[in-house]
Amino acid sequence: MFNFTALPPLSLYIHVPWCVRKCPYCDFNSHKSPDNLPEDAYIDALIRDLEQELPSVWGRTIQTIFIGGGTPSLFSAKAYERLFSSIRALLPLSPHVEITLEANPGTFEAHRFSDYLDIGINRLSIGVQSFNDDSLTALGRIHTGSQAIKAIETAHKVGFANFNLDLMFGLPHQTEKTATNDVTTAISLEPSHISYYQLTLEPNTLFYQQPPTLPDEDPIIDWQVANQQRLSDAGYQQYEVSACAKNNQQCQHNLNYWQFGDYLGIGAGAHGKISDAAKQSITRKSKQKQPQAYIESASTTDVVLTEEYVVKKDIGFEFMLNALRLTDGFPTSLFYQRAGLPISHISKALAEAERKELITYDIHRIRPTERGQRYLNTLVELFLPE
């Protein structure tokens, strides 16, 4: 049994499962878009799905909304306006709610960025990955480097003050020069936020089944260190393993994940985590993954694919898996607030992590060391239940 003194902040994640083409490295729930995208039917399904979730979050305010995919920018602003109208009718939103939409340069249309801003979307996350055309081709992307630059310039022009660029390194046939050029180009375009992460070959992807030729690991690490320094010198403060921001414009939605907050998940394949003060429990849910099955089941309990309670023995690992991604760590008191257990529940693992110089730990804060950040998987594994 847990002991929550207060419920954590609540976010809403909305999944749009279609892409123009499935990228060979992508392990997200995404599907090739049909010729006639069922935009209206899917918005109807999202609304019905959310209605079924309401009893679990009565009286709670949505702090952030993130529309991910897939490629959410395949949907029109008109469709999202209808969805937002229903969301606002069903749930209170924070006056300063952060609403992020993922957009790919390959599907981007200039007028849509302006329309998205007009309906209340106040943050974009643009999936650039690289500005090098050879790298983009190797990744199976459908946009070019020049199209990516144009998309970013348009985001500025229409008035987005806050947007993220996704940028990868360690790409097929990538060199130190092209990796560096990607970062310097991104910096020159002045986004407020950059996500900078290494390409990994995830199971259930084409790249995992047919691995491309990748650069050796040692030089990749050197590139990463040098380019993270370039980002820092340009004013991008790293606050998470793969995320940095200017002017304190961190992604509030992702911060809620990493600080073990709650989130509703609606849409095909969406996941959610909800704490219940009355039951003193934490429940995780996932929704039907296939788009048509999701649409057909959205108004019934069959829309839930999996549902399970987080058990006491797993809570330390689940919390630390998220919170240790933050470069500044977290207040020691946050564990009790969000996990509902005293910090002594993980004292053995904390002592071992400190002995291995992977964290610094005192009564006020737990923080990964530089070594702990580099060997994060090793650090987190210390908190696995015995």
Average of pLDDT: 95
CATH architecture of the largest domain: Alpha-Beta Horseshoe
Helix content: 25-40%
- CATH-defined superfamily of the largest domain: tm_1862 like domain
Number of strands: 17
| Overall geometric form | globular
Counting helices, strands and paired strands, the structural category is alpha/beta
Tally of helical segments = 15
List keywords for this structure.
386 residues, alpha/beta, 2 domains, nine-stranded mixed β-sheet, three-stranded antiparallel β-sheet, 17 strands, globular
Fold blueprint:
Blueprint: E1 10-16, E2 18-19, E3 31-32, H1 39-53, E4 62-69, H2 77-90, E5 93-103, H3 110-118, E6 123-129, H4 133-138, H5 145-158, E7 163-169, H6 176-188, E8 193-198, H7 206-209, H8 217-233, E9 237-240, E10 243-245, H9 252-258, E11 262-267, E12 271-276, E13 281-287, H10 291-297, E14 304-309, H11 312-323, E15 330-331, H12 332-339, H13 347-355, E16 359-361, E17 365-368, H14 370-374, H15 376-381
Parallel strand pairs: 1-4, 1-11, 2-3, 4-5, 5-6, 6-7, 7-8
Antiparallel strand pairs: 8-10, 9-10, 12-13, 13-14, 15-17, 16-17
Helix pairs in contact: 1-2, 1-10, 3-5, 6-8
